[in-house]
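Box 3.1 A note on notation
Throughout this textbook, protein chains are presented in two layers. The first layer is the amino acid sequence; the second is a token string describing backbone geometry. Keep the layers aligned when reading.
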Amino acid sequence: MGWVSKTKERQLRISRIRKWRTLRRRKKLKKRLRHKAKYESKFSKIRPESRRSGPPATNFQLSFPPTLDFDINFDETIMFFAAFRRLIFKIKPHSIRINHSALVKISPAAALVLIAEIVRGSKILPRCKWRGTDIKNQEVRELLGEVGYWDYFKGINWRKTPGNSRQYIQHRTGNHTIGTVAKELVQHYMPELKVAEESKKALYPAIIECMDNVMKHAYPLADKGKYHFNRWWLLGFRDPQTHEVFFCFFDQGYGIPKTIRVRVKDKLGPLSQSDSELIVKAVVEGHYSSTKDPTRGRGLPTLKRFIDAAKAGELMIVSHKSRCIFSKAGTTEYNYETRFDGTLIIWRLQN
């Protein structure tokens, strides 16, 4: 009879749909496992501490690669921080032990990002116990002390080497624009800035705009009320022997490419410009802001003009899946598969 055949057809259709859904779930699971394995590889160095018995381990050990530096070891550095964020937001352990023993070299910018991630992690996981091991490398111990990293650990002492000529301003942080911090940084640089007086005055508003950009569009509104919302991090140094000045600025928001991708031509998927191309346009052309305000978007071009006028220097911007380096030799663009959450600006100048 007709109704019997229709019933069988419906049953077959339901069976096919169930099989298709099962296969889709399996594919998604395999994809998640591959993604998980990627960050638990030798690059991430994040693993549970061994336990002989009892429930699954919730105590994790965080070990560093030998070099944590955005200049000379970029791939391992961003994979380390990607694994660190996954540890905080996905795994959420009860205890984290930071093992510094493998660390041989660290840059000031990497130290700033590390401080920001640890502080945010401690706020997101208030019940998590953070422990840290001592470090034998004197150079790394001293740099971490100079930037204020050891202030978050108890019982680790450091002292400055007499021959070290770098004069640091320890890291600063805030969730609103603080003019006194920008003024302190500019005044710290004055003895080594061999540029015209008008150019010196342009540095202060450039740093202020970095802070303003964080306030206006760096973070999603869903994070409002959380500790890291609208928060920026900054540190710098000058060196009287090499006549070098340096500062780095970091926020944990959307990233420059996402915040300035507001024009229709920039939202056309594969047909639109890459992340690095958007950053280059924002730095070279200026006035490329999500607010579309002609008075905005001047901070990064100003920092680049200092590089162009100096004896040597470099402006590096790391954001989302891109890295752009601006120097007197030209502009270099890189695009990556691993995402770097937030925006890191590294500015160094030598006169």
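The two ends are 93 Å apart (CA to CA). Residues 38 and 289 are 35 Å apart (CA to CA).
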